[in-house]
Write a structure and sequence with these properties.
Helix content is about 30%, strand content about 20%. The protein has about 290 residues and is of the alpha/beta class. It has a single domain, classed as Rossmann fold (3-Layer(aba) Sandwich), CATH 3.40.50. An eight-stranded mixed β-sheet has the order 2-3-4-1-5-12-6-9. A four-stranded mixed β-sheet has the order 8-7-10-11. A hairpin with a 4-residue loop joins strand 3 and strand 4. The longest helix has 24 residues.
């Protein structure tokens, strides 16, 4: 079976992958990657397009092969303004999904909570996504993606049996390996895994200043559905990964800030906060993979 682990940004992939190859972090007897490529330049500093992207790592488990991919690698040669473009990501993500269909897709990245509950330094795992257009009518020239699934709950085709294997991961031991975030850490950072939990995606926003208005609009659009499904994270890219296929799907969000608190929880120490959050997402992924293989 082919498992695709798709990480959003390069600065999320590097620490997530570091956790996945750290023998003090990952579960005992986890396989060493049969392929492990070094970190790459920030994509906006590369002056040619990456026409044949490759996974950053491949782990051969007993019952599946897990490939770790980074979306930033697809965006090499694109301008700095396009690095957060939902449109560009959606156009290029198909390169990861070429070839053998995936038996499981895991979307990975950092995120905020959908409320003021402090989960900073923890990680959440869910199965559903909801995407809202943060710049309708082409109001963002760098990202004008239109999807028929906007403002709809998109569930995962994952089976109850496969999810049960993932949910059997030792969440307490995994969370004991989390790095503390430096700013406003949660009292007890935890790893939560919930079938049906939702990642809210704000789409077509490529400037961080716009999230102050766009993220609340995404939350309000989701609340207007009147669904009982529970949102657990707010980010930009899990949904774009989900719609690439009808393979079983989960997401892993490393929580770095409370809702609308980016300015206090992340911005003053952005690298440290995001690096710890992405590392913790990588910890979650490696423990989920071990549980699936068991």
């Amino acid at each position: 079976m082919r498992v695709l682990v798709v990480v959003n940004k390069w600065w999320e992939c590097d620490p997530a992958l570091a956790a996945m190859v750290n023998n003090n972090t990952r579960p005992p007897n986890s396989p060493w990657p049969k392929l492990l490529r070094p970190a790459r330049k920030p994509p906006e500093l590369v002056h040619h397009r990456n026409e044949s992207p490759e996974p950053r790592a491949v782990f051969e488990y007993r019952s599946f092969s897990a490939e770790v991919w980074c979306i930033s690698d697809l965006l090499e040669g694109y301008t700095a303004e396009q690095q957060s473009s939902s449109q560009r990501k959606a156009e290029l993500l198909g390169k990861i999904f070429q070839g053998q269909s995936a038996g499981l897709v895991i979307a990975v990245g950092t995120a905020s909570t959908p409320d003021m509950t402090n989960r900073n330094g923890g990680a959440v795992v869910g199965t559903s996504v909801f995407m809202h257009n943060g710049h309708p009518n082409g109001s963002n020239p760098d990202s004008n993606l239109n999807l028929p699934v906007f403002d709809k709950l998109v569930e995962s085709p994952i089976s109850a049996a496969m999810f049960a294997k993932l949910a059997a991961a030792d969440t307490k031991t995994a969370a004991n390996r989390f790095l503390p975030v430096p700013l406003h850490p949660a009292p007890e950072p935890a790893l939560s895994i919930e079938l049906g939990a939702v990642a809210l995606g704000t789409i077509n926003v490529s400037k961080s200043a716009d999230y102050a208005t766009a993220d609340p609009e995404t939350l309000h659009a989701f609340q207007a559905l009147g669904t009982s499904a529970q949102p657990v994270s707010v980010e930009t890219t899990h949904g774009l990964i989900r719609i690439q296929s009808e393979s079983p799907f989960i997401f892993v969000s490393g929580i770095v800030n409370r809702f609308q608190q980016f300015g206090t929880d992340v911005a003053p120490r952005m690298d440290a906060q995001n690096t710890a959050g992405a590392h913790n997402a990588g910890v979650a992924v490696t423990w989920l993979l071990a549980a699936l293989d068991a």
